[in-house]
Structure prediction request, 143 residues.
Amino acid sequence: MGTWDTGPFDDDTAADFANALDDAEPEACEALIRGVLIRTVDATGYLAEADEAVAAAALIAAQCLEGEPVGTPYGPATPMPMFPTGLRALADEALARIAGDMAGPASHWVAQEDWKKWRVMLTRLRAVLAPPPPSFALLDVQP
Prediction:
């Protein structure tokens, strides 16, 4: 596997996933993204699709209000359709699983500084994807 930087599409596997999204019909992109996230959340043992799940989460986060666009030549060239907001929680769950798997993608990094940058990127994505806390109306209490 070739990894050249710490971004969500900066490895061969994620770049191949972007190509698969470009080759898919727009209505199939959501199914591809949902599938890789579900398989990552449900995986036992080695997280075989962790790189794709990080890339998928980045695409979902890019559509969030606080999200950053995927500005890399290795991401999908085709604009992504709008994803349902329900995918945010699934993407966050997949990233939590990936971040907690020290034998998986975290073990790819030889340089400690690169590992830290990658973890910061995961944390940033999770902050955008995390569902907002429930809100409730405050009662206007008069003395």
The chain has a mean pLDDT of 87. The two ends are 67 Å apart (CA to CA). The longest helix spans residues 112-129.
